[in-house]
Amino acid sequence: MFTGQCLCGAVKYQSPGPALFAVICHCRDCQRASGSSGVPVLGVPKESFTWSGPVKQSRVTGGSGLPAVRNFCSECGSLLFGTPESEPQLATIYVGSLDDPTSFCPKVALYTSQRPAWAKPAMQLVEHAALPRK
Ligand SMILES: [Zn+2]
Ligand SMILES: [Zn+2]
Question: What value does the CA radius of gyration of the chain take, rounded to a whole number of Å?
Answer without folding.
Answer: 14
